[in-house]
Amino acid sequence: MKKHLKDLLWYTVGSIIYAIAVTIFISANEISPGGLTGIATLLNYTLHVPTGLTILVLNIPILILGYIKFGGKFIISTAVATTMVSFAITFVEEVVPAVKVDKILASIFGGCLLGLGISLIMLHGATTGGVDIVAKLINKRFRHFTVGKIILILDAAVILLAVIVYKNIESALYSVVTMFASARVMDSMLYGGDRGKVIYTITSKPDEICKSVSQELSRGITLFDVTGGYTGEKRKMLMCSLRPFEVSLFYSLVEKYDPKAFIIVTEAGEIIGEGFKKLN
Asked: What are phi and psi for residue 243, nearest 5 degrees?
């Protein structure tokens, strides 16, 4: 019960933030957020029907079909979150005035708030419904279409529809900015803002480099035995996780002992463990 109440609390907070983004920034400035919410804002613009109620009505058949096909707690949680989002949008439309601002500001702030609201809901086991469930249903029938591609196609269709409704191609461009800002915030919230670099170094001086990195950077290194495919030479490969600002110092330490070292640097979306982020 305590967990359910906690989830409901975060659904409420996420729904209100989502509603503020849609009502005050996005819809008021003729920008489409894509998905079913985008369709609802277009219907509100053309037919003056309530955005929140329209979102709920559009989601009902999708949620029912999703429950039939997938079942489980996820669809039920999503139904609860979607209902709360719909009521939150209706409430915000009534009590908070829309803001007419520069469209680039509206698209950026609206997108950031949109991503924040969705993330708070997703972090507690639900989504805001809409195209993600539709995409999963289509993917179940047509496996050669990935969920990500389906969502992209559906969102693109809504954005093109917004161009026709608003009679302004700039609406599509601002919608892309909104979706990009939303995606960036969601990436940080869902996958962690604790980004870093993972460096693989093949060297003939592993002991010296390990000792130097430990002393200068206070970072641990994992060693692997590797063999050159062409030369057959046996060497060591070092793997080390670093903050981005530590990479240049790592290069200088490696160059000091082995200027011929072979280095591969990759992006790490999130690093969990000692010296970085705790597992909780």
From this structure: -75, 150
pLDDT tens digits along 38-73: 888 888 888 888 888 888 888 888 888 888 877 777
State the pLDDT at residue 175.
Answer: 87
pTM check: above 0.90? no
Q: What is the tally of helices (H) and strands (E) in the chain?
A: 10, 4
Answer yes or no: are the C-beta atoms of 62 and 130 closer than 8 Å: yes
Strand order of the sheet with strand 262-268? 222-227, 234-242, 196-203, 262-268
pLDDT band of 271, cuts 50, 70, 90: confident
Residue where a domain stops, chosen among 191, 208, 224: 191
Q: Which of 161, 191, 221 is the last residue of a domain?
A: 191
How far is residue 136 from each of residues 77, 168, 182, 186, 259, measured CA to CA in Å?
Answer: 16, 32, 21, 19, 50
